[in-house]
Design goal:
Rossmann fold, 36% helix, alpha/beta, 2 domains, Nitrilase/N-carbamoyl-D-aminoacid amidohydrolase, single chain, six-stranded mixed beta sheet, 570 residues, 19% strand
């Protein structure tokens, strides 16, 4: 029996910040070295950030990445470092470097390149041709893989284990979606048990545009038992004294038969074999589930988007409704109350109750709140356009005019004071076009872009349960009927089906790509299904102009779902 001290280095890289990312990697390598770790594993493309997208088309970026990787390898000490970078030869490769004692020991190229959902790796990378070597780390033969390589049952994990690896490393940049951590854990446990090898999974953490990487790195023994895990949604250095037992008996007795692959050559790192007692594995944290993990994803994604793009403060149009209440609360948790400004912009149709609710929310959050009435502006616009619209007032154009006036005011504050405007549209509204171009869609980031209306309420209740007393969001906001308050006594359900029904239909039509016929066959009223589908299809041009927002489902509007705007298929 032997064992090694493994460090899973769960960091938050910034795409394109090669020097900054190298500094983060080196700092954590040194921390791992100081903790007497034998091996430090970092996420996929930790040096460039993930995904680098069309930066890879710039030769200067690729060359600087290579030069930075070489300098980083030269700074390593006793602890072997495994980090992601972009390798270049005839083609580009999504790659891992392994280095120790200032020497570059080897390189691994990702074999399986995902080209679905938000992934577009075949646009940039050529697939690797399989591991060329294993690495002797403290007497343990170690194999390297990258993300998608671990998802195939007969893929590189199985191949490397059959060729002699007792521990297989998996570097990842796996984006968050609700429930994804449990799927990963089940898959990784199966890979480890099937391969009869220990498996260490290190995932990135942090927000990158609409993607959120949730960390949650894990280590499994050769039986598939999870022996350690890192927290979600925060940077972490997880140290594990991993016991590696001989597995030949299990392989000999495996009824599926033994693999006959030739052994891979083993490259030595110069580290001595560890002997003696090992420290007990840290207790894995309780995984987040349901609304709790989605809320943390929104906080992390919003905070990182704001900070990484050079903003320090944000502004939210606060209507007294549930969507803007949740956005303001997420922003306060992500950035701190001092960085959040809220603005109520009442018109003649705004109720006093909504104004009071908005003010109370701001008071509970401790954020700066101001009131800018828009009635005089609204009247001025109506008078200016009266001759051109000749008797068509009031109507939808007048309603949307109020929203556009508010968008203009928020963008003026953004220009004058440097505040990023956070928009407040949710996924249900974006899906059916229940939004105003250049009005409530005007801004820099849409926190709730992938959060359906029914989940908005769940998230609000979750946050209230987590806070002191009654929580930050007044119960009056949660109990009132949803309304845009753009005309007297307006309610959302006058224009849309109840959100419980609408969200179920949208899950089928948008996220599962089910047809109208399939949804009708499942028991939904045919006329309602056709109406909702028509609204979704007609709103594509609006969504294409909407700001990015945090992705929390398996299929979000944006990179996940790419439909032509001009489209006559029904």
């Amino acid at each position: 029996m032997s064992w090694l001290r493994l460090a899973l280095c769960q960091i938050d890289p910034v795409v394109g910040d090669l020097a900054g990312n190298a500094g983060r990697i080196l700092d954590m390598v040194r921390s791992a070295d100081a903790a007497d770790a034998d091996l430090a594993l970092f996420p996929e493309l930790a040096l460039t950030g993930y995904p680098p997208e069309d930066l890879l088309l710039r030769a200067g970026f690729v060359e600087e990445n290579l030069e930075t990787a070489r300098k980083l390898a030269a700074e390593t000490g006793r602890c072997a470092a495994v980090f992601g970078f972009v390798d270049a030869g005839r083609d580009l490769h999504n790659a891992l470097a392994i280095a120790a004692r200032g020497e570059w020991l080897g390189t691994y190229h990702k074999e399986l390149l995902p080209n679905y959902s938000v992934f577009d790796e075949q646009r940039y990378f050529a697939p690797g041709r399989g591991a060329r070597a294993l690495y002797d780390i403290a007497g343990v033969p170690v194999g390297l893989t990258i993300c998608e390589d671990a998802w195939a049952p007969a893929g590189p994990v199985a191949t490397q284990a059959a060729a002699g690896a007792a521990l297989v490393l998996s570097a990842n940049a796996s984006p968050f979606a609700a429930g994804r951590r449990a799927e990963r854990a089940a898959m990784l446990a199966t890979r480890a048990a099937d391969a009869s090898a220990c498996l260490a999974y290190c995932n990135a953490v942090g927000g990158q545009d609409e993607l959120v990487f949730d960390g949650g790195s894990m280590v499994f023994d050769a039986t598939g038992r999870m022996v350690a895990a890192a927290p979600q949604f925060e940077e972490a250095l997880l140290l594990v004294d991993l016991e590696v037992r001989p597995v030949f008996r299990k392989r000999l007795l495996d009824p599926r038969g033994r693999a006959t692959l030739p052994l891979l050559p083993v490259v030595g790192s110069g580290l001595p074999r560890r002997v003696g007692p090992r420290a007990p594995a840290p207790t894995p944290p309780v995984p987040l589930e349901g609304a709790a993990e989605v809320y943390e994803a929104l906080v992390l994604g919003t905070g990182d988007y704001v900070r990484k793009n050079g903003f320090r403060e944000v502004v939210v149009g606060l209507s007294g409704g549930v969507d803007s209440a949740l956005v303001a609360t997420v922003a306060a948790d992500a950035l701190g109350p001092d960085a959040v400004h809220t603005v109520a912009m009442p018109s003649r149709f705004s109720s006093q109750g909504s104004l009071d609710d908005a003010a109370e929310l701001a008071r509970r959050l401790g954020v700066d709140h101001r009131v800018v009435p828009i009635e005089s502006l609204h009247v001025a616009f109506l008078e200016a356009l009266a001759g051109d619209f000749g008797g068509r007032w009031p109507g939808l154009a007048e309603e949307n005019l109020q929203s556009r006036i508010r968008g203009v005011l928020l963008m003026a504050l953004s220009n004058a004071l440097g505040w990023l405007v956070l928009t407040t549209g949710n996924k249900s509204e974006l899906a059916v076009g229940y939004s105003t171009l250049y009005g409530d869609t005007a801004g820099g980031f849409d926190v709730l872009k992938d959060v359906e209306k029914t989940l908005v309420y769940e998230l609000c209740r979750h946050r209230n349960r987590r806070g002191e007393g009654d929580g930050p969001i007044p119960v009056e906001i949660l109990e009132k009927p949803p309304s845009a308050e753009l005309r007297p006594d307006q309610r959302d359900d006058q224009s849309l089906p109840p959100y419980e029904i609408l969200d179920e239909l949208l899950a089928g039509y948008v996220e599962q790509d089910r047809t109208v016929a399939e949804l009708v066959e499942a028991g939904h009223p045919a006329e309602l299904v056709r109406r909702v589908a028509a609204l979704v299809d007609a709103a594509e041009y609006k969504r294409r102009q909407s700001p990015p927002g945090v992705r929390v489902t398996a299929k979000a509007f944006g990179k996940d779902r790419r439909l032509p705007i001009t489209n006559h298929f029904r």
